[in-house]
Amino acid sequence: MATNEVQEELIRSLLILCNNEGSLWQALQGREGVQLLISLLGLSSEQQQECAVALLGLLSHENDESKWAITAAGGIPPLVQILETGSAKAKEDSATILGNLCNHSEDIRACVESADAVPALLWLLKMEVPMGRRLLLRP
């Protein structure tokens, strides 16, 4: 799907959410929406990346199915990459998502570990990212 088509689909989904007061998961049409958001993680626009990560963060709090969908759609490696190269906001949101995923399932935790997230998270903990320590040290 072309970038413009992805953006149009996400905008349409968010309009549905705003008009119907439904859940983000429903507005994004579940797993399809997760795949669209993950496809935006690699875009060069910092703003698009931050928005996609923020929406994935909301989804990772919303329901259990979204956590599995993020994992199954290959979302963990790009989230780890964002920990290393993204903006401060994107790094913080990525760390939160990875934490939510790890807290949900041992299987997902193993996927996060196999994506070499631990060194990236430790680096984030040591760096200047203001919320990094709080995100990584919370229970």
Which helices and strands, and how do they pair?
Elements: H1 3-20, H2 24-27, H3 31-40, H4 46-62, H5 64-72, H6 76-85, H7 88-104, H8 106-114, H9 117-126, H10 132-137
Helix pairs in contact: 1-3, 3-4, 4-5, 4-7, 6-7, 6-9, 7-8
Provide a quick synopsis of the model.
With 139 residues, this protein is an all-alpha fold.
Give the tags.
139 residues, mainly alpha, Leucine-rich Repeat Variant, 10 helices
State the helical fraction. Answer: over 70%
The average pLDDT value, as a whole number, equals: 77
| Domain tally | 1
Which radius of gyration do the C-alpha atoms yield?
14 Å
> What is the chain-wise order of helices and strands?
HHHHHHHHHH
So what's the overall shape?
globular
Low-pLDDT sequence parts:
none
CATH topology: Leucine-rich Repeat Variant
Walk me through the structure.
Pfam families: Arm (PF00514). Keywords: Repeat. This is Protein CELLULOSE SYNTHASE INTERACTIVE 3. One of its GO terms (cellular component) is cellulose synthase complex. The protein has 139 residues and is mainly α. The protein has a single domain (3-137), classed as Leucine-rich Repeat Variant. Helices cover 79% and strands 0% of the residues. Helix 3 (31-40) packs antiparallel against helix 4 (46-62), helix 4 (46-62) packs parallel to helix 7 (88-104) and helix 6 (76-85) packs antiparallel against helix 7 (88-104).
